[in-house]
Amino acid sequence: MAALTNDASALAYDRKMAATRILAIDYDRSPVADLGYSGWVQFDDGEIYIVYDAPKGQIRGCSLQPTEFVL
Prior knowledge:
Layout: E1 2-4, H1 7-11, E2 21-23, E3 39-42, E4 48-53, E5 59-64
Antiparallel strand pairs: 1-2, 3-4, 4-5
């Protein structure tokens, strides 16, 4: 999961003044819950790269820019 927000929303003292979008990045496909989560890094140019486990030990990932989302 990802939460997209801005500084003003994070610092809002009133819930009505805050705006946040919750996004599902990927779902755990394991038949047994393992409490795992994806790992991510944000580079200096703003690109966010997300890596997560895939079936049979394969690793996959995706890349996105914050500008791809609208709050």
